[in-house]
Specification:
Layout (H helix, E strand, L loop, with lengths): L2 H18 L3 H8 L2 H10 L8 H16 L1 H11 L10 H16 L5 H15 L2 H19 L4 H7 L12
Helix pairs in contact: 1-4, 1-6, 4-6, 5-6, 6-7, 6-8, 7-8, 7-9
Length: 169
């Protein structure tokens, strides 16, 4: 399993936690229970057998994003320029939480990789405008916090040019 697939699983789990309100530890224990998890691989190839390294990565990412949820949501609202978190889709919010947590707290993950993966993943789950919105939020965050421009890498992986963040309505 690749880190990209592990990230996608983490986003799905962060989304599920947001929807069901469970505590992260018990939710993850139930999700990764051998019997339950085995049934998922028959439904979606994403849920193939997890190597221990990727399982640990997913658990750390989901638990961390859950524990730091208020902080991450505050950053999302700050960099979304006038948008309330309630106006952002739950999928987009989950993608943003995962990316921001990786950038801020997972030193082994290059920030640009986390940003690029978030933008690419959003293209699979959201409209193009939402992917551009996510790119804008993460780009603004990176520029302010790290004086970096992540969009250059995103355009290398995509034939599309990054789009500026939509105006808040």
């Amino acid at each position: 399993m690749t880190r990209t697939a592990a990230r996608e699983i983490a986003v799905r789990l962060v989304f599920a936690l947001d929807c069901n309100g469970q505590e992260a530890g018990s939710f993850l224990d139930g999700f990764f229970d051998g019997e339950y998890y085995a049934t998922l691989s028959g439904e979606d190839k994403l849920f193939a057998q997890l190597p221990d390294e990727q399982l640990s990565y997913i658990r750390a990412l989901v638990s961390g994003a859950y524990a730091r949820g208020s902080e991450l949501d505050g950053l999302i609202e700050k960099y979304s320029k006038g948008w309330k978190l309630t106006r952002i889709s739950r999928v987009a919010a989950a993608i943003l939480r995962v990316a921001l947590y990786e950038v801020l707290y997972m030193e082994e993950v290059p920030p640009r990789a986390a940003i690029n993966e978030a933008v690419e993943l959003s293209k699979s789950y959201e409209e193009q405008e939402t992917a551009a919105f996510i790119n804008g939020i993460l780009g603004s965050f990176m520029r302010e916090k790290f004086d970096e421009e992540p969009e250059a890498d995103a355009t290398e992986r995509s034939s599309e040019q990054p789009v500026e963040e939509p105006e808040a309505q």
